[in-house]
């Protein structure tokens, strides 16, 4: 069910984004990366403060982790709503409105009196960040096709990957000078800066003649069509389950390394940065790997490798073999494999449905963050320790690998899905 090539594309096979002047293209890609990073920044920046919030608001660790789950739920639900809206009215208005909601919620988080209010505001934060996440992906699909999109997703991951490095580090520094509420002051400033950059740099990328105005019935029809594509559904599940492995690490790592291994907030930030370096490095290696192998082969191989590393992680966490290094090394290797899954699964999925890019990206993002939202409390239920984290990480990789090989069957996917962008690689 590959998408019919767009007749408006240039005859030489290049996508519209490749016709832009290099400087303008660079600025747009940079801002798209920052948009994609808003969600991870919102999730990760307050991770070093989770134990502090637990004490300050007189809550349990599992209850505080639900504030993370709330953010993920907001990101998932928000994308389902914003994706079809962006296909109907264009990209810019929903984008700027969503970031504005995020900024307002961040301001209110600074003043949150208890955990219930904080959790509610985190859901609203996620709803606002959803606009940035889904519209950034839709804009990429508006401008780039096939393998060119896969390469751009890899480049965007370089910017997105900076978020997990900087966010806990910034959060740790903020905690040196103020309370956890100061983290949300920083998030407010970041949201305002990203909103200003998007308003200045990003044009409307969806022409009026390509907008879809079918209302609720049309939206339901578009979602129904997506659900009938077995390969697309399998690919978004693979992306979601890989995200679950990542979120299990994100939600459990502060408790594992600060409580179980007795690291300081700053040491934890450095450990977290190490994992992000592996994730970033893999996404950039993906650009080179795409010169020799198809996204299908890279996706299948990285999942198998990640499954093996996840099994090693579960063994070392359960037995205590190797201490801190015994947990860190296989964990970082799993994250690197997730870094190869994350650009290729979305590129393969969105290549099939460019005519409803906003809706397709919304469903993809909703599944990613929705499945991730289930992973966060699951770690807490299992005990908020290294074994609990490793169990969910391994489970996510196992399920993603199973779906990939049983449902998607990457070895049988035609390269034709990515054919429009092949000339751009030569």
Automatic annotation (TrEMBL):
Chain ranges of the Major facilitator superfamily (MFS) profile domain: 25-413
Principal place of residence: membrane
Membrane-topology annotation of the record: Multi-pass membrane protein
Pfam entry (one): MFS_1
Lineage: Bacteria, Bacillati, Actinomycetota, Actinomycetes, Micromonosporales
Species whose genome carries this gene: Actinoplanes oblitus
Membrane-spanning segments: 26-47, 59-83, 95-117, 123-144, 156-177, 183-202, 231-256, 268-287, 299-318, 324-344, 356-376, 382-408
Subcellular location: Cell membrane
Record keywords: Cell membrane, Membrane, Transmembrane, Transmembrane helix, Transport
InterPro entries given in the database record: Efflux_drug-R_Bcr/CmlA, MFS, MFS_dom, MFS_trans_sf, Sugar_transporter_CS
Name listed for the protein in its UniProt record: Multidrug effflux MFS transporter
Domain of life of the organism encoding this protein: Bacteria
Record has Phosphoprotein as a keyword: no
Keyword Transmembrane helix: yes
Family stated for the protein in its record: Belongs to the major facilitator superfamily. Bcr/CmlA family.
